[in-house]
Amino acid sequence: MNYATRQRSAVQKTLEDAGRPMTPAEIWTVARSLSPGLGIATVYRALRILMDMGAVEVVEIPGAPPHYERKHPQHHHHFLCEHCQRVFEVEACTSGIDQLAPAGFTVKRHSLTLYGVCNDPACVNRPAQQAQPAVAQFAGGFR
How many angstroms separate the CA atoms of 67 and 84, rounded? Predict the structure, then answer.
């Protein structure tokens, strides 16, 4: 059981250090330096356990594979870089968004995703015709 705990800790530390939502493949790439021998299936199992514990939550963005982030106590939104496909946290929330609902409707929750280009020089300097989505490895997810 200590083996699983060490691997779970590597996944959790990876998400905490990244400070942004990550795909299981991104997590696996970083976390295996913290836990040699870590496999992608173990990353998925660790994510499931961490979600069940309430430490991690899934970030679903239309057109992107599921991303996972540490659980936040406050409401927030996300930014998807259309060049590198990385997702970043946006801590602010637009006020009055519930007023966009049709008259008589009650908004219970909302999600907002901003799309554009991140500040990574590789993305900023990329010619527009090459701005194609990266192929997502291990794009599967779970709920």
Answer: 14
